[in-house]
């Protein structure tokens, strides 16, 4: 704290916070069968603020979600696991319920040498956990004059590892303004089987790129952030479906109550902007959409000669289309380097 009471240095290890976490689980998100690479809400507080010191940092996240859907979303999941032929007519009166409990680890290295005048960081996220899903209802299929009806409940669960999600960020600081750009993607090595209704992987590659901005006023403790990007999805080799291009925007606002603690709001908007291809005619373009918003609380504290960061946030989802919706919570713990007090920071790497 400054003598006048204003906040001098947040030093949040924001490279770690921003990089957490690029993940996806096949229980709750848009596009093919209601699943997308980008998980809305994964980026929130101070994403564009450069880390206070170079070196290794580690982020750990516990993520829980509980969602539900009906209509075309449940039909898409049934079509996926049944591999119904395009000439089969389908009518469905069913509901999908899913939940997941996941642990995510995100080691990240922040370089000390500026790149294009900014701070470069590279990391990768791994995921382990359990996802479960059930479909309840009636599915009727017909070919020519023949019809078949499936009634009852289909349940599935899996505990395993997920895909890998590398990420590169580049950040710049100019007074209260902070800017970033990033590129990330999906390496589909996780547990995935198109015949299951619950997976911890999406079964195909993806590339995502975008940028963000953070306003951080040290005198007032007010911060506003937004990160936007687009996802290009590779065709799923198992289903021959290629999800459309997705747009996502994550935002946050917070007020620091002291040098250590802040409270605020977080939210996201997600919209698929082009159609899926290769899917069942019943589903059409199957463009997905969802909005979410909720509270957050953050706390910064020393961990030996490192710096710890604890954050909890929760989202309630609404205005969903062609994807399950419900609520999700995130509990984040990150450790990052602390700038040496006797070191002279460079113009670009100081976080104030």
Question: What attributes characterize this protein structure?
Answer:
Porin, 352 residues, 2 helices, disordered N terminus, twelve-stranded antiparallel beta barrel, mainly beta
Give your account of this protein's structure.
By secondary structure, the protein is mostly beta strands. It contains two helices and 13 strands, in the order αβαββββββββββββ. It has helices spanning 14-19, 72-82, and strands at 55-70, 89-110, 119-143, 146-161, 165-174, 177-186, 206-217, 222-233, 246-256, 261-272, 289-303, 306-321, 325-337. It has a twelve-stranded antiparallel barrel. A hairpin with a 3-residue loop joins β12 (306-321) and β13 (325-337). The chain is elongated and about 70 Å long. The termini are close together.
Strand and helix layout:
Layout: H1 14-19, E1 55-70, H2 72-82, E2 89-110, E3 119-143, E4 146-161, E5 165-174, E6 177-186, E7 206-217, E8 222-233, E9 246-256, E10 261-272, E11 289-303, E12 306-321, E13 325-337
């Amino acid at each position: 704290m400054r003598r006048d009471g204003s906040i001098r240095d947040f030093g949040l290890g924001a490279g770690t916070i921003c990089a957490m976490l690029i993940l996806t689980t096949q229980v709750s998100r848009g596009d093919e069968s209601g699943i997308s690479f980008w998980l809305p809400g994964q980026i929130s507080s101070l994403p564009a603020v450069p880390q206070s010191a170079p070196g290794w940092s580690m982020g750990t996240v516990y993520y829980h979600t509980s969602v539900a859907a009906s209509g075309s979303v449940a039909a898409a999941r049934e079509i996926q696991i049944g591999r119904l032929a395009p000439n089969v007519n389908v009518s469905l009166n069913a509901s999908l319920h899913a939940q997941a409990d996941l642990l995510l680890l995100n080691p990240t290295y922040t370089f000390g040498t500026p790149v294009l005048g900014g701070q470069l960081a590279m990391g990768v996220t791994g995921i382990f956990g359990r996802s479960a899903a059930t479909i309840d209802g009636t599915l009727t299929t017909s070919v020519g004059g023949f019809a078949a009806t499936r009634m009852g409940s289909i349940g599935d669960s899996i505990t395993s590892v997920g895909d890998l999600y590398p990420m590169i960020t580049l950040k710049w600081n100019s007074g209260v303004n902070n800017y970033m750009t990033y590129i990330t993607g999906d390496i589909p090595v996780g547990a995935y089987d198109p015949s299951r209704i619950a997976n911890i992987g999406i079964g195909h590659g993806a590339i995502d790129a975008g940028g963000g901005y953070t306003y951080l006023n040290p005198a007032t403790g007010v911060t506003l952030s937004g990160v936007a990007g687009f996802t290009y999805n590779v065709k799923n080799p198992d289903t021959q479906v290629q999800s459309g291009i997705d747009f996502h925007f994550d935002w946050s606002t917070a007020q620091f109550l002291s040098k250590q603690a802040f409270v605020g709001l977080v939210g996201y908007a997600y919209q698929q902007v082009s159609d899926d291809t290769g899917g069942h005619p019943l589903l059409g373009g199957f463009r997905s959409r969802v909005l979410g918003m909720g509270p957050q609380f953050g706390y910064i504290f020393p961990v030996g000669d490192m710096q710890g960061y604890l954050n909890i946030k929760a989202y309630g989802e609404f205005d969903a289309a062609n994807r399950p919706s419900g609520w999700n919570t995130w509990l984040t713990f990150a450790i990052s380097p602390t700038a040496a007090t006797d070191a002279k920071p460079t113009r670009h790497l100081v976080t104030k």
